[in-house]
Amino acid sequence: MSDETQAAPILTERRDNVLLITLNRPQSRNAVNEALAHAMAAALDELDGSDDLAVGIITGADGFFCPGMDLKAFVAGERPWHPVRGFAGIVQQPADKPLIAAIEGFAVAGGLEIALACDMIVAAEGAKIGIPEVKRSLVAAGGGLRQLPRKLPLNIAMEWALTGDLVPAERGYELGLINRITAPGAALDGALELAAAVAANGPLGLRATKEITLAQFGWSDEEFWPRQDAIWQPVFASEDAVEGATAFAEKRPPVWRGR
Is the pTM here over 0.90, yes or no? Predict the structure, then answer.
């Protein structure tokens, strides 16, 4: 049995209130197989299920993010989908809590679709991103064709999807797809810095803010206000809301309890 077979396809590490999720199939440059998809889903369950965790970071082992689906495993009959969370255990149902992708090397095809399922992206200089599926007469069916037109101007999204060309991370930053660019090898450090800024905030407010921001795409103008009210009102009635206001008045850091 190879080292790759024995190794866990996903590694998780808690760093204070941040869960670091590492794609860990370096011999295949972290390509997605069935085991990785199910392990990713379990890691997101851990993130959402723990009151001690506020933010998740997804990164890749050995200087690469992910090239997408493991084609050898696919030909052998594996299907890298989770029954609830979808491809790679994330694209159809990401975590309820904020997620940050930290990209080194490349995030292409399904690898970019994993990153697009996150809420923010930090990438190293020189990293490549793209959805090249059409170059193999395939379709970016893991969410890329849904997410890119939401996050880029439509004509740019069309160009990326229809040419299949890879794009430097710097171009993604210019277009607003990528939040921060770091020096090569420093994407994880940049993501940890961003995660710390997010995780310092109230956990109930974070989850509600993410839910409203993403769910609103399916709401009409008339639906927006009552649906938003149903999400924010319990947050305003929480102990944490009182603590936030009290801490501000007393000029001290708040102590969140998640209730």
Answer: yes
